[in-house]
């Protein structure tokens, strides 16, 4: 048996023969494996960079929103309940009787036909309750029926979530202005008056509300602290303003900044972010609150002005005895009475009508007030351009690198939120009672204004809780699997989506490794096979002078190992160089995009497209070496079995 040093010398000699073939083999195979190395470095760099950005805030957490499970068909069942309908009719007749007696006492007119009954008759002659009952009979009736039932029992929720290693349960409270009232945005500091009965006029004067859907939500610091500006942006609990966190796009709108184009440069994005944060600390805005009576008088003033202008100069036109004018658009005041020629009897009738209305639960006095808000925090902008992988029904997989990057950098906005800790410091909460209101409908059972959120340690725990404890509303309105207490979805964060993308990339890399290995086997197989064929005469001579089959095999095995090592070294070199080139080209832009998406002004955080996962890189190196050895097996077996005498004769 020959010495190992001789084996190594012969193997090196073979590397120097057929140099062009060897170089081409190394180059082609190195490029294939180099792509794998570069893919590993880049993807790990992106994920590590995104992890550093999402570590602060909600994006790096696994939070599930939990609501009471309900059957959407329950509303129809309740509204057609014969016992409820019978009771509603009974109470309506009692109300009509009471109104008739009171109207007679006050000396005013009352017609039952003008009163809205709490039920209606359908085309099939059946009857159903009317949720829009203006007398409140349905609301009181359903409250009596359902208010004793639990909405979500927090102790039960805590116990069930604890089985999945929950680490926190949080509650938000949401409010809306009193039913019939409104909280209206201003345009350039002025209220816009228009006839709301005309759709075209209404659409032309529509103003984007900073409150979005109109809800006011108070949330605990555990959910919103990361969005609050330093020192609460100077807000003081002096009762002059409500502290509020708004999404970045809403803040941009309030500041009068147009939306950046999608192709905005890195510098433009960062400059915009700095500008928003610089100006937001001094940002306040106002909205005008009006109850139903104040709104009605404003609409009456609009119609009267139009009517008076249309009839100006007509001798037979008689002006109304009570005329309203619009107030100062900058002060959110009630309509102004500019003419009152009512007789004493008419005034008495109007006063008695107010007594009558107040007796039966209607507002009789106009209320309006300017409500000031102080921006104390900025949450990430709402982004609808990227598929939300965390929500049911939207599990579409990303198909391009841009899709993946966008998904990784997508941040769910929390919308408009008032920090509970700041709200609790207000000395005059009573002054805001009309806008911090909540009126349940009870059509689907008991309701409240509490939003529950459960935080879990891992995405696996969060998803398992959703899968095993919640149900999904089906097309038929039922919530299935039946018998479950909750509907639950991932909230605020795309952490689960990022985990899915991470698994998806690893799957892609595994498939890529398989394809590259097959191609590399083919390339090296051809090279080693040709080398063995070219060395038949040489092999026959070695056999003739006493070399054994194992000696010949050792030479070609070491040759293949040396070839594989060269491929591995070149592949890692090419991969590292390629990753650094991509890093210098794209990392600054991705860092800017991440800062812009995450509202992160910390310049210390960077996204680098070069990150070493030694386990993954080691696997690539092992596959590279194994591929070389595998490609040499069949040619080598065929070669050592050949007769050296036959090879000598053929030469």
**Structural class of the helix and strand makeup?**
alpha+beta
Sheet of most strands: 6 strands, mixed
Q: Indicate the low-confidence ranges by residue numbers.
A: 384-399
Oligomer: single chain
Count of discrete domains: 3
Summarize the structure in words.
There is one protein chain. This protein is of the alpha+beta class and 651 residues long. It folds into three domains: 4-60 and 497-650, no CATH class; 177-288 and 369-437, no CATH class; 292-359, no CATH class. The protein contains 20 helices and 16 strands. It has helices at 4-16, 19-54, 74-79, 82-106, 137-146, 154-162, 199-204, 221-224, 248-254, 266-280, 292-310, 344-359, 401-409, 420-423, 459-469, 495-534, 536-544, 549-598, 614-640, 644-650; strands at residues 62-68, 119-121, 127-129, 166-175, 182-185, 216-219, 242-247, 284-290, 322-325, 336-340, 368-379, 418-419, 450-456, 472-473, 479-480, 486-491. The strands form five sheets. A six-stranded mixed β-sheet has the order 12-6-4-13-1-16. A hairpin with a 5-residue loop joins strand 2 and strand 3 (127-129). It is elongated and about 130 Å long. The two termini are 26 Å apart. Mean pLDDT is 83; it is low at 384-399.
Give the arrangement of secondary structure elements.
Blueprint: H1 4-16, H2 19-54, E1 62-68, H3 74-79, H4 82-106, E2 119-121, E3 127-129, H5 137-146, H6 154-162, E4 166-175, E5 182-185, H7 199-204, E6 216-219, H8 221-224, E7 242-247, H9 248-254, H10 266-280, E8 284-290, H11 292-310, E9 322-325, E10 336-340, H12 344-359, E11 368-379, H13 401-409, E12 418-419, H14 420-423, E13 450-456, H15 459-469, E14 472-473, E15 479-480, E16 486-491, H16 495-534, H17 536-544, H18 549-598, H19 614-640, H20 644-650
Parallel strand pairs: 6-12, 7-11
Antiparallel strand pairs: 1-13, 1-16, 2-3, 4-6, 4-13, 5-8, 8-11, 9-10, 14-15
């Amino acid at each position: 048996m020959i010495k190992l040093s001789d084996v190594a010398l012969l193997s090196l000699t073979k590397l120097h023969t057929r140099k062009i073939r060897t170089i081409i083999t190394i180059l082609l195979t190195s490029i294939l494996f180099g792509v794998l190395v570069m893919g590993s470095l880049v993807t790990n760099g992106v994920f590590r960079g995104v992890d550093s950005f999402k570590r602060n805030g909600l994006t790096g957490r696994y939070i599930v929103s939990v609501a009471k499970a309900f059957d959407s068909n329950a509303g129809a069942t309740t509204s057609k309940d014969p016992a409820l309908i019978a009771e509603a009719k009974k109470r309506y007749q009692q109300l009509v009787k009471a109104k008739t007696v009171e109207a007679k006492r006050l000396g005013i007119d009352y017609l039952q036909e003008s009163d809205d009954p709490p039920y209606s008759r359908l085309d099939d002659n059946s009857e159903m309750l009317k949720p829009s009952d203006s007398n409140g009979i349905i609301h009181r009736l359903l409250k009596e029926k359902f208010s004793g039932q639990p909405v979500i029992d927090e102790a039960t929720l805590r116990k069930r979530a604890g089985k999945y290693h929950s680490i926190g349960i949080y509650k938000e409270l949401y409010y809306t202005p009193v039913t019939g009232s409104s909280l209206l945005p201003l345009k350039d500091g002025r209220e816009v008056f228009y006839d709301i009965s005309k759709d075209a006029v209404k659409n032309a004067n529509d103003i984007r509300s900073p409150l979005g859907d109109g809800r006011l939500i108070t949330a605990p610091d555990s959910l919103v602290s990361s969005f609050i500006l330093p020192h609460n942006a100077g807000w003081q609990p002096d009762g002059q303003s409500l502290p509020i966190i708004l999404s970045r796009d809403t803040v941009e709108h309030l500041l009068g900044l147009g939306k950046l184009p999608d192709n905005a440069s890195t510098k433009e994005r960062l400059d915009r972010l700095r500008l928003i944060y610089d100006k937001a600390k001094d940002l306040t805005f106002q909205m005008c609150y009006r109850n139903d009576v104040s709104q009605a008088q404003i609409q009456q003033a609009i119609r009267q002005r139009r009517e008076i202008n249309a009839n100006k100069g007509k001798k037979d036109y008689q002006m109304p005895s009570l005329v309203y004018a619009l107030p100062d658009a900058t002060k959110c005041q009630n309509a102004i009475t500019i003419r009152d020629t009512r007789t004493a009897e008419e005034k008495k009738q109007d006063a008695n009508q107010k007594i009558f209305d107040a007796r039966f639960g209607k507002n009789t006095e106009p209320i309006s007030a300017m409500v000031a808000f102080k921006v104390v925090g900025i949450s990430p902008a709402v982004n609808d351009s990227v598929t939300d992988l965390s929500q049911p029904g939207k599990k579409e997989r990303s198909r391009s690198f841009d899709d993946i990057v966008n998904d990784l950098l997508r941040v769910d906005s929390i919308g408009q939120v008032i920090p509970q800790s700041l709200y609790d410091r207000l000395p005059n909460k009573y002054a805001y009672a009309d806008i911090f209101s909540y009126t349940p409908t009870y059509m689907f059972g008991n309701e409240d204004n509490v939003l529950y959120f459960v935080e879990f340690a891992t995405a696996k725990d969060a998803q398992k809780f959703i899968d095993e404890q919640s149900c999904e509303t089906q097309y038929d309105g039922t919530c299935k699997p039946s018998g479950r207490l909750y509907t639950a979805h991932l909230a605020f964060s795309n952490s689960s989506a990022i985990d899915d993308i991470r698994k998806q990339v690893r799957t892609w890399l595994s498939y890529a490794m398989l394809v590259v290995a097959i191609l590399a086997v083919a390339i090296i197989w051809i090279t080693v096979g040709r080398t063995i064929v070219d060395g038949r005469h040489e092999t026959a001579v070695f056999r003739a002078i006493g070399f054994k089959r194992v000696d010949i095999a050792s030479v070609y095995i070491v040759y293949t190992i040396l070839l594989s090592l060269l491929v591995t070294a070149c592949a890692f070199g090419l991969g590292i160089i390629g990753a650094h080139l991509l890093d210098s080209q794209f990392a600054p832009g991705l860092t800017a995009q991440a800062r812009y998406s995450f509202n992160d002004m910390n310049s210390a955080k960077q996204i680098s497209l070069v990150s070493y996962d030694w386990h993954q890189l080691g696997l690539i190196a092992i596959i590279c070496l194994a591929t070389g050895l595998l490609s040499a097996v069949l040619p080598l077996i065929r070669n050592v079995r050949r007769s050296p005498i036959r090879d000598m004769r053929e030469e």
